[in-house]
Amino acid sequence: MTESIYAAKPWTALLSEAQLAPVHPAETMVHAFRAAAGRAPDHTALAYFDGRLSYREADELSDSVAGHLAAEGLEHGDRVAIMLQNTPHFVLALLGAWKAGATVVPLNPMYKSGEVGHVLKDAEVTALICSDRAWESYLRATAEAAPSVRIAVTACELDLQSADDPRVLGFERLPAPGADDRASDLVAVARRGLAAPDGRELSAADTALISYTSGTSGSPKGAMNSHGNIMVNAERQRAGHPIDEGAAYFALAPLFHITGMVCQLAACIANAGTLVLAYRFEASVVLEAFAEHRPAYTVGPSTAFMALAAHPEVTRDHFSSFKVISSGGAPLPPALVEKFRDGFGPYIRNGYGLTECTAPCASVPPEHEAPVDPVSGTLSVGLPGPDTVVRIIDEKGDDVPFGDQGEIAVRGPQVVSGYWNLPEATEAAFPDGELRTGDIGFMDTAGWLYVVDRKKDMINASGFKVWPREVEDVLYTHPAVREAAVVGVPDAYRGETVRAYVSLRPGAETEPGELSAYCKERLAAYKYPREVEILTELPKTASGKILRRELRSPR
């Protein structure tokens, strides 16, 4: 077999010595956390409004959670579902489950009963840890319908802080679980001082997470992220960024999402840093946390940075402490990068990854800025790491030349072994261990990777291919546009036609016809949107990814 033209890894010529150096990650997240607790036991591990937990305290509290789960009958290798917002409770539950030898199934708190029920049954979940409000409103009944769920723990997310910020914590405290209640209270359990069970040690090869894909295309599948997958990417993040040990990391991305889990939580722990949590994204709360905690790092979707930039009280000082700001989980328009830098100073560093490759497989190093392809106007998502091989392939799986478009394929230590209980889907998506992403892109001769769009989002207008990203990038250059999404809709004459949905910046005004004409001036005739609809907000996943699927549905 002929060696791949991408095997030479041209991108390594652009990586620094620190980025090229071999990494020696901790075996698991638990090992990394205990190492950080040993180095800096009194350093703040978790900051949650006015609440603080040191590494020593978080270690002891999560030990007790592990002891409780084991006492309730959790076995080594069982699955624990965690459905919580960005709070210390999530981290204590996560560490506790791992210390008990379990695999964690992170759940989106926005899931409805049917979605949760599917995951509980599919992953054969033994224990469910969720908010008390969700438990009382519908999860009690959902768990009862899933025969494998034998253990329930609830969390009042007003605990571990006293600020009770009404912008995000404006809910009432429920009564604590009674003696006959099926669910135990997480904080009460954590404060019992139980020891973690012996004989439950996990290894790098063990499955840390069954991460269900967002379902933006098809039914969610559970990617099996090993501890080794997580730790190699976390250590690459730590080693490749100029961030001092112990620095503050702000959790902008949700922790249940693989980006938040790896690039925020795991990288922060590897660096013995302070993870700043603010329940969920609310622009004014986030900006106040930036001013108070002076974080050095955050990562989030482009939509979050759009919202922060549009806030009436935002200033350059809010971002002055950052050493690195990364974007992931949603496409990053070049216009936003420049508007953000002009307005606030930091350069947002693009990145690319999937749940199946445990967050990043390419990113923009701190020493570089991402080039923009002069033909398509696409912003590069960055360079692969030294131990990763990214190929661009055709329908047969063969290399296409540098500069040509094809499907992005990834091989490296961050790629998962497959999907939970789906051998056929695993075989199709991971032939010979290489991830076929379903994303269309290309790579230039220097090794910069560009993502054009999802394979199945391509629009066929009168036989011409239209990639939504190209049209969206043009819309983002319009001064009135805050968010944009482009989809193909049925057309009797053209087969499909291009429709754009946009939301506007605060105080901005424009008309659909004006936006259509704006694109017509800048795009080929078959590409510009014949139809434009202005919405207050575009539908998104909890991680900030705009859901084109919902926009394609009949309205």
TrEMBL record:
Domain named AMP-dependent synthetase/ligase: residues: 33-420
Pfam family, one: AMP-binding_C
Domain AMP-binding enzyme C-terminal: from-to ranges: 470-545
Domain of life of the organism encoding this protein: Bacteria
PANTHER family named among the record's database cross-references: LONG-CHAIN-FATTY-ACID--COA LIGASE (PTHR43767), NONRIBOSOMAL PEPTIDE SYNTHASE PES1 (EUROFUNG)-RELATED (PTHR43767:SF1)
Name of the protein in question: Class I adenylate-forming enzyme family protein
Organism: Streptomyces atroolivaceus
